[in-house]
Specification:
CATH architecture of the largest domain: Orthogonal Bundle
Strand order of the largest sheet: 4-3-2-1-5
Helix content: 40-55%
Low-confidence stretches: 6-26, 93-121, 276-286
Radius of gyration: 30 Å
CATH class of the largest domain: Mainly Alpha
Structural class: alpha+beta
Shape: flat
């Protein structure tokens, strides 16, 4: 029989604990106001809250903002963290999605505050490495025989890193409904029996495999890409490709086979143009120095002037010449403008190369030691 005094003390302790927890929970409206005050000086809610995060990830985000100059007291940052974890924490969004409370097409439920957490470029799946490791165990037990170690497919099943369902999935909101409809598993167990946690962990594992593939993860080793015929490559270089009209194996290309690894050399010769909006060097670390696109402008009365492009559209043209002087004109019929693109020939060749041409050229270039 329970001691009445002991029961009284236990009930008092429980009441005290509940009151303490209640007192410690800040009002969500006040926390939201604190978020708007401290974080809203630099971020719109849509940009800051587009991706759900775990508590640790939100803490990391807040620490980073503090390092960048965010101003607030310890109590304010504690209130902000509580608001973010409660309303935009990873688990809250995942649970809502897996419970079938998502929007059209199985998108995650709309979080509190009315800001959508739908899939898209602003809301990519952020992988939780620990969850992915747990998902790997489910994968090994139920999926690996058909879809392979890296989810890249086997003779028994398709690649999932190329599947639209995985690309659209966010924390199991697409994967969960699919598995609940029933899908064969290697243990013979029904896929509908997988728990919400297991589905979420499988989702993390699959997105980790997807990102590893897209980012050229070190787990995927670049094998020998030099499979062509060097003699045929030399013939194309000096013949149909007309490469020798601009390049010389004893001039600008002397030693390229020694200077670059084969995979890097292949990327450079196929696309030497630097990414749009970025100067510096071409593809690959330590690639050749990028050459600028220039314009040669000849006014109706005057001498031609050549310089790098500043403005070039249907209405205006402006360049900066080699001395740094700025020149600008309105576009007219009498103004002659010639674009000098050092990569134009490569752009044309990429439309003409066959697979054999590309492999043969690489095999030739690696011989230029």
């Amino acid at each position: 029989m329970t001691n009445p005094k002991m029961l009284t003390r236990l009930l008092a302790a429980v009441s005290f604990t509940a009151a303490t927890v209640s007192a410690q929970q800040p009002d969500m409206a006040a926390s939201k106001a604190t978020f708007d005050k401290v974080c809203g000086t630099c971020h719109t809610p849509e940009s800051a809250l587009s991706t759900p995060r775990t508590k640790a990830q939100w803490e990391e985000s807040i620490d980073k903002m503090v390092q960048l100059g965010a101003k607030g007291t310890d109590d304010e940052f504690a209130a902000i963290l509580n608001f973010l974890v409660s309303q935009y924490g990873r688990d809250a969004v995942t649970d809502a999605a897996l419970a079938g409370r998502g929007g059209r097409g199985g998108a995650p439920a709309r979080p509190a505050g009315g800001i959508a957490a739908s899939a898209g470029a602003e809301d990519k799946h952020v992988v939780d490495a620990a969850a992915a490791d747990r998902g790997r165990k489910v994968w090994a037990a139920e999926c690996i025989n058909c879809h392979g170690t890296y989810a890249r497919g086997t003779d028994n099943g398709p690649s999932l890193v190329r599947a639209d369902l995985v690309a659209r999935d966010r924390y199991g909101n697409q994967l969960g409904p699919f598995l609940r409809k029933g899908h064969p598993m290697q243990s013979g167990s029904a896929s509908a029996n997988l728990t919400a946690a297991q589905i979420s962990e499988l989702s993390h594992f699959l997105h980790q495999r997807l990102y590893d593939t897209l980012r050229g993860s070190p787990i995927f080793i670049v094998h020998d890409v030099v499979t062509g015929d060097a003699k045929a490559g030399a013939a194309y270089f000096n013949g149909a490709g007309k490469c020798n009209t601009c390049h010389s194996p004893t001039g600008d290309l002397a030693g390229v086979g020694r200077k670059y690894e084969a995979a890097t050399l292949q990327a450079i010769f196929l696309n030497p143009r630097p990414p749009a909006g970025r100067g510096g060097r071409g593809p690959g670390v330590g690639g050749p120095v990028a050459k600028p696109v220039t314009l040669t402008v000849t006014p109706p009365s005057g001498t031609p002037i050549t310089g790098v492009v500043v403005i070039f559209d249907d209405f205006d043209v402006a360049i900066r010449d080699a001395s740094g002087e700025y020149h600008a004109w309105k576009r007219t019929r009498d103004l002659k403008v010639v674009k000098n693109d050092p990569y134009a020939a490569h752009d044309e060749l990429i439309q003409q190369y066959t697979d054999k041409n590309m492999h043969d050229i690489l095999a030739y270039l690696v011989t230029l030691k």
